[in-house]
Amino acid sequence: MSVRRLNISLLCSLLLLLTSCSRQDTSGQQAIRIQSGQNIKLLTTTDTHYLSPRLTDNGPAFSRFLAAGDGKQLAYSSEILDALGNDIGIERPGAVIISGDLTNNGEKASHQDLAEHLRAIEQQTGTQIYVIPGNHDVQNPWARRFEGEKQIPVSSVTPKQFRSIYSEFGYGEALLKDNDSMSYLAAPSDDLWLLMLDTSQYSSNKKLGHPQLDGRLTDATLRWIDRCGKLAAEQGAQLVAVMHHSLLDHSEFVQEGFTLNNNGQAAAALIRNGISTVFSGHVHFQDIRSSGEDIYDIANSALSVYPHQYGILDYTPAAGTYEYHTSGLNMELWAKAAGSTDPNLLHFNSYSEAAFRRLSADRTYSRLAEESSYTAYTQKQLAAMADVVGRLNAVYFAGTADTELTAITDTEGYRLWQAAPYSGLKNYVLRMAELEQKDNNHLLVKLPGW
Ligand code: FE
Ligand code: MN
Known about the structure:
The chain is α/β, with parallel strands linked by helices. It folds into three domains: about 1-35, no CATH class; about 40-335, Metallo-dependent phosphatases (Purple Acid Phosphatase, chain A, domain 2, 4-Layer Sandwich); about 345-430, Serum Albumin, Chain A, Domain 1. About 40% of the residues lie in helices and about 15% in strands. The chain contains 15 helices and 15 strands. The protein has a seven-stranded mixed sheet, covered by helices on one side. Strands 3-2-1-13-14-15 form a six-stranded mixed sheet, with no helix packed on it. A hairpin with a 4-residue loop joins strand 13 and strand 14 (about 320-330). The longest helix has 23 residues, at about 350-370. The site of manganese (II) ion (MN) has 6 residues, from loops.
């Protein structure tokens, strides 16, 4: 027996001692369902945008890509997944959901390496993970690796390859599969089932030359949802829906391409099948909306972007309640335990917040410095105004306007914006300062009929 094999079998027997035997059978094939009547906890995350470390040399082309981007911490893709695995081991949810944009731009190597991470997490924690694709994940013409000064095209995946790579993460474990999309129905517990809906459209990506942004549910998928609802009702299970695109508008700034094209039809189908809660992603910021209390759409912020948080849903069957709250990825804890010496990882919260704010502040500063109407301003004044934009964006993404907005509007930088000459940027800043001050990080849902 080789040393490597010995280590693996030793590790496996240790892990088996640590994990709950009721959740995982020894063949590693199909987990046993959580039984009826038990409380169940779901960990919901999204937009991991994993980039395989094999695809970057962290050189100038990669730096430029990050600087032009939207704040994803792509250089720490693997560490983020390791820290997530560590948190799953501590939280011990019954199931984990990732609602799309699993990879940076659908690179095959990223999918393969992410699946390796997920496999290790399932083996180490006994928790089942369920995924669906997002608009970036399949047949993406933007799939690239980064080498020196160059971005080099690499292969993406077909829908068939996607299903095969993630067969252990939903596709091989489904109760029902939709023929018209990569949607499926999964039952991690007797009482709570997952309607995993594929809302993305990838068949035209090649022709378009970019990943199609908008999403929809086809008529055939809507009819399939009714089959799922019927089956769940017959077996007395609650359904939560999971999709990449938004069911409800989450922002006055982004709607087209973000909210499902046929969201009215989709909401009607979900509501008539007794679904009261949807988990989505895609917008990258944290926001909870409801349509007159009939249905809630919880947009989880992106795991790959500040503030790197995920959602926890506690279902209590005896009370008929879902209790949702967000929780921050504990990178510091993982980095310390892993013996990392990287100060960014050891102080990840402050590092990532500063980097996120700097990205939008620096862009704002360059724009202000170029505009003729701002030439009378000192460098210090422009920097204070740019800082306000960085802080507003951070609050917007974290969904914490209810607790943090006033501290920003109560600054010299904000007063400078109020007195500034009209510009598109000023309009944006003033509208951001009027964000609805609601709690996007906690929710209590009473299930209908309770
Ligand atoms: Fe995304
Ligand atoms: Mn997306």
